[in-house]
Design brief:
This protein is mainly alpha-helical and 110 residues long. It has helices at residues 19-37, 40-59, 67-91; strands at 7-12, 99-104. Helix 1 crosses helix 2, helix 1 packs antiparallel against helix 3 (67-91) and helix 2 packs across helix 3.
C-alpha cells in the first residue's frame, strides 16, 4: 500500500472495469511513477514542472524553449507513457479505450 501523497490518479473511460479493478490500476500507475522518479514528492515535482512548461508554451508560443523545458516535458511524458502501457498490459485494457489523469493539490490545502 502506498503512502498518502499530495496527488492521486484516476482512470478515465475504461469500460467494463469494476471499482476494485479501476482502483488497482490507479494504484499501480502511481507506484510505477514513484519507482521511476524515486519518490512521491519527485513525481509531484516532475508533473508540476511539466504542466508549468506547457502553460508557458500556450501563453507565449513564440518564445524560445530551453533545453531544460524540453527535458522536463520529455521526462514526464516518457514516464507516464511507460507506466500507462505497463498497467494497461497487465490489466488487459485496450490503449485507445482509457487514460489516466493525475490530480495534484496545493500543499497548503491538505
Amino acid at each position: 500500500m502506498r503512502r498518502q501523497s499530495k496527488y492521486d490518479a484516476s482512470l478515465q473511460a475504461a469500460p467494463g472495469l469494476t471499482d476494485e479493478e479501476r482502483k488497482a490500476a490507479e494504484e499501480k500507475f502511481l507506484e510505477l511513477l514513484e519507482r521511476v522518479f524515486g519518490s512521491a514528492s519527485k513525481v509531484r515535482g516532475a508533473y508540476c514542472e511539466c504542466v508549468a512548461v506547457r502553460s508557458l508554451r500556450v501563453e507565449n508560443p513564440w518564445s524560445t524553449t530551453t533545453p531544460e523545458e524540453v527535458q522536463a516535458v520529455t521526462l514526464w511524458e516518457k514516464a507516464a507513457e511507460k507506466a500507462t502501457r505497463l498497467v494497461f498490459s497487465q490489466m488487459k485494457i485496450a490503449p485507445g479505450d482509457a487514460f489516466f489523469e493525475l490530480h495534484v493539490w496545493n500543499s497548503r490545502t491538505n
